[in-house]
UniProtKB/TrEMBL annotation:
SMART domains: WSC. It comes from Moelleriella libera RCEF 2490. This is WSC domain-containing protein. Residues 519-611 form the WSC domain. It holds the Pfam family DUF1996.
């Protein structure tokens, strides 16, 4: 049903347009008439045309299939959204219970789900989702907390970064003694509690969620800045989070389109199993369809199939809040689904509910007490990578709701053949990408190639830094205590340190054997950030990424450092900016183009250089080295 101009005019007469009052953040909740339209192994965004690696619950239009497009969704015969004009699809991994006594697997029924549509306080014009826009948030490969999730709030809420804990769990309880998440947990053996809310955290809670009519709930925020230059289907690069500017305005980069921010909440009927496990004694029994016993890999996908005129009216005129989108001005009774039961047939012929010996797709259970956290151990019918970012998701991707982590489709219109998905949500991409000169050597390419990152990886902030090394700097470096093994340089506006990489406990390959790739040596695993540690060329378009392919590309283009991330992203540069060396266990994602190898991780870069050294600029490591150097110098006085 198309939303008529008469309806638009009618709605305008009963409410002041939200677009005329941008100083307020408004919202309306979209509800669904049935639990889902299908539960099946399909993900048309991440693994089009083939079964996804794990099972999803799917909501929305009946046009959903393994290969569905926006056009297919608009042709849906029905939808289980309460608003008939929304034939979009929303999907996320199914939840299962593993009996601690028998080891058998049972599906957990979904109580219900809601999609909150937030219309940001912004100076932008918020526009309806264009038909076919594909978004993915989260990382199905995560079994340990992502670097972004454990950073402090002040650092995480930077331009281009998703909000802290954009993928999280809520566990309503009658009381919180003992706590749902152990106090002080680092996330390696248990989930991490929210310091301000006892009922929320990252990773599954180790408790029965027994709050009234509110069992375990998965919460996922979607990004709200669409980059039309990337394209509707380029889910790894087409989305980002708005930047918070003065006055609390959430604005998108110039040339991007500000769309509604979706917050998806999914309630699971976990209380059915409360008498079958003992919190604190038995292993946490709930498992996501991808085989995740930690809950860190929760994710979701969205493909737009809205009547755009109808959604635009809701954006411009509605602030119905929790009363529901069906109460928005201009929404009449004939626009609502009442008693309509919309379902479709599963896309795969297999058991996905009831009692089973193993998860559909034969996904092994990994994480926490089950061990096996290596990404390479996860079956990959489709391969996905989550945006580092991003959001978006997929980290390279942002967390797709489908199968593996990070697909290789990096260009508009490109579809991943070996996909896994991944990637995230709330503020904020930074200023629109712009070119800047390299901060290292003059021989390096001056123009930076900046690709918009998706939900996982947000638009990077290009920074210009002029470097001027002096003879005095070389002299100062020579006086350092030999323990530091570092060279100190004088830099205009920044200080650069070239430090020998600390000893590695793990190599970039799954077999811990590959130290030299394409003539470059492995320098270690380094933290990435919203502005990108390697920002001279971001997300090089190489198809399925391997360490060798990335190294060869960066070396050929004159860069001294190459880095891979999220299993499917390649970055080039001449120094690591605002980075530091981290434990090699964070670089744990299998390379899309060479599965036995590891290509970085979530906000983590596998870095290679000619001599196995990495130049650091503006990082914690740099500050620590300088402090160490100054301390020894003071002792000599």
């Amino acid at each position: 049903m198309k939303f008529s101009n008469l309806a638009v005019l009618a709605s305008a007469s009963v409410a002041a347009a939200r677009k005329d009052k941008p100083d307020e953040r408004t919202f309306a909740v979209l509800r669904f008439t049935d639990q889902m339209i299908v539960q099946t192994r399909a993900d048309p965004i991440v693994s089009p045309g083939q079964p996804s690696s794990h099972v999803h619950h799917v909501l929305g239009g009946s046009g959903f299939s393994m290969s569905s497009t926006g056009k297919d969704l608009m042709a849906s015969n029905c939808t289980n959204a309460l608003i008939k004009g929304d034939k979009s699809n929303y999907w996320f991994p199914s939840l299962y219970f593993r009996d601690p006594k028998t080891g058998m697997i049972e599906d957990v029924k979904m109580f219900y789900a809601n999609a909150y549509y937030f219309f940001d306080k912004t100076k932008d014009d918020i526009k309806a989702f264009p038909v076919g826009l594909s978004i993915l948030v989260g990382d199905p490969f995560l079994r340990t907390p992502s670097l972004a999730s454990v950073e402090d709030k002040a650092d995480a809420q930077q331009p281009g970064r998703p909000p802290v804990n954009s993928v999280r769990w809520t566990c309503p309880r009658k009381n919180f003694d003992p706590p749902s998440w152990p106090k002080g947990s680092d996330g390696k053996l248990h989930g991490i509690p929210d310091p301000n809310n006892k009922g929320e955290g990252m990773g599954f809670p180790d408790a029965n969620c027994d709050g009234y009519a509110a069992p375990l709930r998965g919460d996922i925020h979607f990004p709200s800045c669409y980059n039309p230059a990337a394209g509707l289907t380029n889910y790894k690069q087409n989305m980002a989070f708005p930047t918070e500017e003065d006055g609390g305005y959430l604005n998108c980069p110039k040339g991007w389109i500000h769309v509604p921010q979706i917050f998806l909440e999914v309630y699971w009927d976990t209380l059915k199993f409360q008498d079958r496990w003992a919190p604190g004694k038995d292993p946490q029994p709930f498992v996501l369809a991808e085989g995740d016993a930690t809950g860190y890999s929760n994710h979701a996908d969205f493909m737009a199939g809205w009547d755009e005129a109808l959604l635009q009216n809701i954006i411009d005129h509605c602030d119905a809040g929790s009363n529901g989108m069906d109460k928005c001005p201009g929404i009449t009774a004939d626009m609502l689904n009442t008693g309509n039961h919309c379902t479709i047939n599963p896309q795969t012929d297999e058991q996905v509910t009831g009692v089973m010996k193993k998860l559909p797709g034969d996904n092994p259970i990994t994480g926490w007490s089950f061990g096996g956290v290596s990404v390479g151990s996860i079956p990959d019918t489709d391969k996905t990578s989550s945006g580092p970012a991003p959001a978006g998701s997929s980290a390279t991707n942002q967390g797709s709701g489908s199968s593996s982590a990070g697909s290789s489709a990096t260009n508009q219109g490109q579809t991943p053949k070996d996909n896994l998905s991944n990637k995230a949500s709330n503020p904020q991409p930074a200023e629109s990408p712009k070119s800047s000169s390299s901060s290292s050597s003059a021989a390096a390419p001056a123009a930076k190639k900046l690709l918009a990152n998706n939900a996982a990886a947000q638009p990077a902030v290009a920074q210009t830094t002029a470097v001027a090394e002096t003879a005095a700097a070389a002299t100062a470096a020579a006086t350092q205590d030999s323990v530091c093994k570092a060279k100190l340089h004088t830099v205009y506006q920044t200080v650069t340190v070239t430090a020998a990489a600390p000893g590695e406990t793990a190599q970039p390959s799954g077999s811990n054997s590959t130290r030299t790739v394409g003539g470059f040596q492995y320098a270690g695993c380094f933290r990435d950030s919203k502005t990108r540690a390697l920002d001279s060329e971001i997300r090089a378009n190489l198809g399925p990424v391997s360490n060798e392919k990335c190294v060869n590309h960066c070396k050929t283009n004159g860069f001294s450092l190459a880095g891979t991330e999220y299993g499917g992203q390649c970055y080039c540069g001449n120094e690591l900016k605002n980075s530091e060396k981290i434990d090699s266990s964070y670089c744990n994602k299998a390379c899309e183009g060479n599965k036995p190898e590891m290509c970085g991780g979530s906000w983590a870069l596998s870095v290679f250089s000619q001599d196995g050294l990495a130049s650091l600029s503006g990082s914690k490591t740099r500050r620590n080295v300088l402090k160490h150097f100054r301390h020894h110098r003071s002792l000599r006085r």
